[in-house]
Amino acid sequence: MDCVDEHIIEAIGKTRVVIRNGRVVFVGSPLIRECPLARRFAVPVDPISADAIRANIEERIRSFGMCTKDRKVLCDRDFVLFGASELLGSGIKSGLVDSVVLVCDGAGTLVTDKPAMVQGIGGRMSGLVKTSPIQEVIARIEENGGRVVFSDTAVIDQVGGVDTAYNMGYNHVAVTVATPDDAEIIREKYPETVIVGVHVTGLGKDESERLVNLCDLVYSCASGIISKIGGINVRTTEVLLILI
Question: Region 61-90: what's the mean pLDDT?
Answer without folding.
Answer: 90
